[in-house]
Amino acid sequence: SSTQAAAQDVADAKEIATDNLISAAQSAKDAIDTTNSEEGYNTLSQAEAAGDAAIESANSYLESANSSLELAESNLEIATTLNSSASQALVDAQEALDSATAANEDTADEEAALQSAHEAATAAESSLQSAQTALETAQAEVADATSTLQSANNLRDAIESQTDEAVAQDNQDALESATAAAQAQAASNAASSTQAAAQDVADAKEIAT
User: Closest Cα to residue 135, out of 54, 47, 69, 59?
Assistant: First the structure.
């Protein structure tokens, strides 16, 4: 139906948009700069934002694909029912013509009805085939959307891991710097204490002398 076709078009558009966002997220991941600078920090936040955008789009794509699939399943059920009805109508029209012919009656109306039944059955069969094709397309779309969402999740996890590693390294560097500074201060304090004690000894000797 036109509604299902429109839903499929929406899913297709979201597929393209999601693929583009995943590509952008991958580029942002590749561009991550772990140097301690404003530019480096920006690459971390940009990569995480790109990963989140890809996830959001992939979820929306999957939702649209599922909606298209639901409509396709409903349309196939309707088309199957209509095809069955049209097939039965064709059988009935043929029987009506056979009866009129056997009774030596004018069969113009029965022949016209049979022709109409043939046309209706052909149209119903075509609609059924179209519905089956649409269902297969929608099923493939859902499979692709599911795979795309998994890819987006994997990419975001990889970005998160990379940014977490950068932050952890910065924290480690800061801890090591703080430890080194504390040790230097302790050494300085010890040296000052030693010098003060030496000065006290010198002062005492001065007095004694």
Answer: 69
